[in-house]
Design brief:
By secondary structure, the chain is an alpha+beta fold. It has a single domain, classed as Gcn5-related N-acetyltransferase (GNAT) (Aminopeptidase), CATH 3.40.630.30. Helices cover 36% and strands 27% of the residues. The protein is built from four helices and five strands. A five-stranded mixed β-sheet has the order 1-2-3-4-5, with helices on both faces. Helix 1 packs across helix 2. The model has no long low-confidence stretch (mean pLDDT 92).
Length: 149
């Protein structure tokens, strides 16, 4: 079941946020600060979308999105996934990840979003994420490159 996150989910959300940080490769570029993540999760719950996948009363997946006018057209609302993570045992065809994405898209529509973006980290799961997104109508727009300064 997909539902909005509640404060009681914070311990699980913090753990999943760290796993997302590690799996996406950010751990090779920056340090994870749990206090900052708690603040970020609370902000996302207030200003955007913060969802969890609940299985038997336990949060096993987490997704967040933010919304803003597009910089190239202020009349266009752009939504952007900020965090999307599902515990490995709940991934796979027809799994919780697909449900979470549907939840993000539903929330984006409720925010009058016309364009919604998803991020695919570069690495082990790149090919699988590419297939997953394309099967759901997403197309690549740009790639992000990062450099530690």
């Amino acid at each position: 079941m997909i539902r909005p996150a509640v404060p009681e989910d914070m311990t699980a959300m913090l753990r999943m946020s760290f796993e997302f940080f590690r799996e996406s490769g950010w751990d090779k570029r920056a340090d994870f600060d749990p206090e900052s993540m708690v603040i970020s999760l609370a902000n996302m719950a207030q200003t955007g979308t913060l969802l969890v996948v609940d299985v038997d009363g336990k949060a096993v997946g987490l997704a967040a999105a933010g919304y803003s006018p597009a910089m190239f057209n202020q009349n266009l609302v752009f939504g952007q996934e900020r965090l999307w993570y599902v515990e490995p045992t709940h991934r796979g065809k027809g799994g919780a990840g697909a449900e979470l994405l549907e939840g993000l898209e539903t929330a984006a529509r409720a925010h009058n979003t016309q364009i919604f973006g998803m991020v695919a980290e570069h690495g082990v799961r790149s090919d699988a994420l590419n297939r997953f997104y394309r099967a759901r109508g997403y197309t690549p727009v740009e790639h992000t490159y990062c450099k530690v300064l």
